[in-house]
Structures are given as C-alpha cells and as structure tokens.
C-alpha cells in the first residue's frame, strides 16, 4: 500500500475557481466545435461542395463533420497518455490551443470556387484537428473537476463541465443567428466566417483560465508514487488490458449524450430546412431554446444524481428518451414554428438527463493510474458513433422519402443503448468487480485530499 503523504486539501475557494475554469473553458471549447456542426448544415454544403446535387452535398458536408469524430479516439490516445503521465492540466492547455487555432483557421479558408478541391481537403484537415482536441478535452475537464471534489457530490459537480455543451450551443447558434440576419449574399460571402474568426480571441481567454488551474490531488499523488516505483509505461495499453469490458459499458452509457444531441441539433437543422422547408432562423432559434432547457435539466439532474446515484439518473434518462422520441419528431414535422421549437426542446431536454451525470458514471469505473486514458477512449469511441449519426440520419431520411420515422427509430436505438450501459455501470458492474472496483481501492492520498 502506498505511503504517499496526502496533498493539501483543496479549499472551497480553490474548488469554486476550478469549477468556474472547467465550465468556462469547456464552454469555449464546445463553442468552437459546435460552430462546425451548424456551418455543416447551412454553409459548407453550398460553398465547399457546390458541384454536387443538394442532397449529396449535404451528405458530403456531414462526412467532413464526422471526420472530427473519427479523430477523437486518436486524441483520446494522445491526451490520455499526456494526462496520465504528465498531468491533467498539461493536457487541457494543449487541447484548448489546438481547438482555438483550428477553428479560427476555418474562418480563413477560401471556398471551392477559389482553390478547387483543396478547399474541402483543408476543411476536413482542420476538422480532424478539432477532433484531436476534443478527444482529450472532456475527459480532462471532468477528471480535474471530480478529482478535486468529494465523492458524495460527484453527481452535481460532474454536471458543471456538462453545462459547457448547452452554453457552447448558445454561443455558436447565437453567433450564427446574428450573422444569419445578413442578406444571403453577404452571409455566404463573408458573414459565416465571423463566428469562426472569433475563436482566436476566445482562445486567449480560455488559455488564461487553463493556466490558472491547479493540478488534481490524484495526479500529484500518482506522480509522487511514480518517482519511487516508476510510471505506467503505456497507460492506454494497460487500460485496455485491465478494463476493456468497462470501456465498452462506458461507450454505451455515453452514446445518447453525444449521438442523440447531434441528431436533435445538427441533423435537425438540416432536416428542418431541407426536408420540411422551415426557415433556417427558425431552426437555429429552436436549438437556442433547446439549449436553455438543457441548462435547467442538467442542473436539476446533477442534483438528483447526488441523491439517487448517477447510474440511476442516467438509466431513467435513457428510458425517458425512448418514450419521447416519436412525440418530439411529430411536433417537428408539423412545420409550425412554435411546435417545431417545442419538439426540439423536448427532445434535447430529455436526452440531457443522462448527459448531466454521465461523467460521474464513466469516471467512477476506472482506477487512478489509467483513468484519463480509459475515460477518454470510452467517451470518444462513443463520439465516433455519435459523429456518424447525422450522416446515418440523412441516409435514413432518404430511404424514407423524407419522412422522419427512420430517424426516430435511430434515436430510440441510441437511447436504449445508454439506458442499458448506465444500468450495467451500476449494481451489475459493482457486483462483478467486487473488491477490485476503484471505489474500494482509491489511492489513499486521493481519499484524504478530497475527503
């Protein structure tokens, strides 16, 4: 057993500063990432794939969108290694710089008419770099938050970084709503670039916040042990060897918060404008309203997770999402502005129930020494599947001649996976692991530091 002296216990002020930095930094990171999703639905199909038929151009645009998700496991491997070997803080500083630079450069890209095939190639490359960054972002922000805070509050504290998603949606959709007020000629000529170029300024702010974050007590204890006993040579390989089954459960549990979200935001914007003939401003405003609803749900569900247990909240949220899938799309299919907004908000609000506490569920399954690598890989493998959802949804809509039933069944399948994964992460996993569960062999210095 380790005899490492416990690091100083974080003060309430330290915890508040950490939570603020985790929330704001994650919100800015997701702002950058979500901009691409909105632009993929509204802009890139026209400016970067103009020679294709409209439906084919939309699919091609979503292919570049999916590239970012395919890159996420690579980012998980890279930043998981950095986070487990060199520190959570170091990984988070690199991720925010990479994301801000890649997003800003998208705003500088010439379109297809200017440089031909190089335009979509460069667009896909920058999207790939965005995916690399996100591959390490969520897991690092979540671990820093939970490794500083008491276990009994992990449900509500894990919801703080999750608020970055709806706030990032509000910022990105709000930015596009503002530039969308421009005449179409101005919007497609230069207006769409403004939200991307703003990433350069946001990068400076986010970097300042990340530099002020304290390293987690868990990693400081791990580093002290590694100085005596040697570090884990390949944390990701060790994570796969020891916890591959738990990683699969984590993939299922996290799927709805990623795949369902992009189905009900990124894809629904395209579905509403292209298939239903609803104005782009209506669809963007629907995602803004949905983001407000998501914020409220995340706060409430996070607090419920402290009382009920994170796995229970996530399981209930997955089941609820199965039940509301058809009603949400029935509302959207009315084409009535108010009902479209209600349908999008209802769907996003319900899938946000499991999203609120999923960080506590996934991080709680893995031991300290490989936690960053295991959490990052599980979450980002779910991200790969989630990133393909808009593409699959577009294909299913084509098969259904523009009807929404195929997409609705896809949402039900995703929600069922999350309900099952969340349940398996609860009592079944604890019974199977027994004394080997990380809850029973938490690093002694960690336990003292966060008590």
Which structural traits does this protein have?
MHS family MFS transporter; 451 residues; transmembrane; single chain; globular; 21 helices; 81% helix; disordered N terminus; MFS_dom; mainly alpha
Describe this protein's structure.
- By secondary structure, this protein is mainly alpha-helical.
- Helices cover 81% and strands 0% of the residues.
- The protein contains 21 helices and no strands.
- Helix 1 (12-42) runs antiparallel to helix 7 (118-148).
- The longest helix is centred in the middle third of the chain and has 41 residues, at 235-275.
- The chain is globular and about 65 Å long.
- It starts with 11 loop residues before the first helix and ends with a helix.
- The model is unreliable at 1-6 and 438-451 (pLDDT under 50).
- This is MHS family MFS transporter.
- It is a multi-pass membrane protein.
- Its main location: membrane.
- Residues 433-445 have a biased composition (Basic and acidic residues).
Largest sheet features: none
**What is the 3D shape?**
globular
Helix content: over 70%
Strand content: under 5%
Number of helices: 21
Poorly predicted segments: 1-6, 438-451
